Amino acid sequence: MTEQKIVCFTLDVEDGVSIAMRDIFGKNTEQTDRVVTYTKQIIELLGKHGVTGTFFVLGEVAKKFPDLLKAIAKADHEIGVHGYHHLQFFRMTPDEAFQELTSAKKLIEDLTGSEVAGHRAPAFSITPETEWGLDVIAKAGFIYDSSIMPVRGRRYGWPGFSKDITTIPTGYGNLIEVPMSVGSVFGKEMPVCGGGYLRLFPYRFTRRMIEQILQKRPAVVYMHPYELDTEPYPDYYFEELRKTDLLTQLRMRSMWINRKTIFSKLDDLLTQSNFVPMIHLVNEYIAGVETEGSTV
Ligand SMILES: [Zn+2]
């Protein structure tokens, strides 16, 4: 297998209701079983296409829904960690982040009986301001991280960071970073391979962007289970939403635009590329670096 024309499908396994409740409204609520429903739909769709991907699972999800974790493992997907409580790195001290990562890693490893190699930070929150997080991720025992969006974003991003897989020396040994894919739209770099971009734009736009990225390197696609969720959220969510300002209400409601289109876009995407779990890219990268005579 060469690295050309390869796509990694990645899923951040978290519940949209409880994360919105905490991050937008400041209320702690439990993960709802919607995360199970929609993650299972994605497992089924990937299975239909014979695709294996990488599922970055939140500790809170693994704790409440251990059977879901087992279903992901049973379908041969790679399992990584997406934090325990979905705390962005800028909301934690290094000690808190270490605790967050090691507790989620241990829980997931105990439940699956397999070692976890990869980590993705909530909301791509490894940025120049939270560079210390890379040390924490290496210290927690991860081989690789996939949290850096090499663009200047409103809430995240590390402008100028490499777009290729990179070795990062840390105080706890080397960490391999698999940066998120960015595409060039009218000369501006954007995180075109997932989330709102996949939802809002026609599939042919996403396809064109992926082909553009594949000219140079493998592409990393990312999604969340809640992007398939078209059922109304629970009443307690709307009670909180009504208390917010109009701009927040509009922003939250905009997250429903085109959700109904995601499933068929994903179906098309899975038909048209060669997919591997992220650990395969990392292993190939390590083998390549070793061949060149350096050490990883
Ligand atoms: Zn997340």
TrEMBL record:
Supply one GO BP term: carbohydrate metabolic process
Q: Which InterPro entries match?
A: DUF3473, Glyco_hydro/deAcase_b/a-brl, NODB_dom, PuuE_HpPgdA-like
Segments spanning the bilayer are none
An example of a Pfam family matching this protein is: Polysacc_deac_1
What PROSITE patterns does UniProt report for this protein, alphabetically? NODB (PS51677)
Question: Gene3D superfamilies annotated for this entry?
Answer: Glycoside hydrolase/deacetylase
- CDD domains linked to this entry: CE4_PuuE_HpPgdA_like_2
Instruction: Specify the NodB homology domain's residue ranges.
Output: 23-296
Give the molecular function GO annotations.
hydrolase activity, acting on carbon-nitrogen (but not peptide) bonds
Q: Which PANTHER family match?
A: POLYSACCHARIDE DEACETYLASE FAMILY PROTEIN (AFU_ORTHOLOGUE AFUA_6G05030)
Query: What's the protein here called?
Result: Polysaccharide deacetylase family protein
Origin organism is Rhodohalobacter mucosus
